[in-house]
Amino acid sequence: MKFVDSARVVVKAGDGGNGCVSFRREKYVPKGGPDGGDGGRGGHVFLRANAQLSTLLDLRYRKQYEAGRGTHGQGSRKAGKNGKDVVIQVPCGTLVKERGTGKVLCDLTEDAEEVLIAHGGKGGRGNPHFTTSTRQAPRYAEPGGSGEKLDLELELKLMADVGLVGFPNAGKSTLISVMSAAKPKIADYPFTTLVPNLGIVRYGEYKSFVMADIPGIIEGAAEGRGLGLQFLRHIERTRALAVLVACDGEDPAAEYRLLLKELERFEPSLLMKPRVIVVTKTDIAAADFTLPDFGDQAPVLAVSSVTGAGVDGLRDELWKQLNPVS
């Protein structure tokens, strides 16, 4: 399935039905009073989070959703039926904004969480509601109210515990394939990963955490260069970061500082998250290779996804970062 993490849709709640102007007409009751029924309420539009969904692809193909209109009231005080509601299913982690203003309307993070996003119009009142002591036979009823119409922007931000951050070809995809059951595309050239991948990392017998492999960062990513903003937002929800630098790079410490700079330019709060520095590809390191000084308080671990060296230690450290001893 194609991964789509943004969509624009227009939602329209149903209009309310009109109230009815009617008078009681029965044999031997020549001057029956008003008996017009109320109109039905227009249908609402709901957004509901569904843990079984992982993409906004369906919303790319269907861009308009409209709830049903309430039916009009009838004589004999018969109320109109309410319009049919519409429920739009979205993945957990969907942020909903009003297009144009950018106002955040809701953030759906829990499975089955539901939000009423557009209210249906109220049904109009029938003419019995307008009787007074001086007006016993009102020939007026209320029209139905208009349903809300909204132009929405939806953004999917992956729900993961740990986000893998690094330059293209830093070994993120290989690492997640070793630590979890995820099967991302792996090759020895930049930008093999074009969409985020999620993997469940088992820890002990009954514990686990979710790891996200995201496309590689390049300089200027915060301004949209490369895959830029298409993936940086997926890091925002993670609880911890694993920053990967390859041991065969020209200057791993400089690469690390550049990665932090891009994260800070996109969202400064990302640097407040717990993080681990992971030096990858140690199986091809030179014989005299030593871990560089990153000038950071974050723990530094050396791993090889090919031989498995250091992977268990990384799993332990990530669990520790996610579950600090209070």
UniProtKB/TrEMBL annotation:
This is GTPase Obg. Its EC number is 3.6.5.-. Its cofactor is Mg(2+). Belongs to the TRAFAC class OBG-HflX-like GTPase superfamily. OBG GTPase family. SUPFAM superfamilies: Obg GTP-binding protein N-terminal domain (SSF82051), P-loop containing nucleoside triphosphate hydrolases (SSF52540). It is found in: Cytoplasm. NCBIfam families: Obg_CgtA, PRK12297.1, PRK12299.1. An essential GTPase which binds GTP, GDP and possibly (p)ppGpp with moderate affinity, with high nucleotide exchange rates and a fairly low GTP hydrolysis rate. Plays a role in control of the cell cycle, stress response, ribosome biogenesis and in those bacteria that undergo differentiation, in morphogenesis control. Residues 160-323 form the OBG-type G domain. The keyword Cytoplasm applies. InterPro entries: G_OBG (IPR031167), GTP-bd (IPR006073), GTP-bd_Obg/CgtA (IPR014100), GTP1-OBG_CS (IPR006074), GTP1_OBG_dom (IPR006169), GTP1_OBG_dom_sf (IPR036726), OBG_GTPase (IPR045086), P-loop_NTPase (IPR027417). It comes from Prosthecochloris ethylica. Its main location: cytoplasm. Residues 119-146 are annotated as: Disordered. It is an enzyme of class 3 (hydrolase). GTP binds at residues 166-173, 191-195, 213-216, 280-283, 304-306. PROSITE patterns: G_OBG (PS51710), GTP1_OBG (PS00905), OBG (PS51883). Residues 1-159 form the Obg domain. Mg(2+) binds at S173, T193.
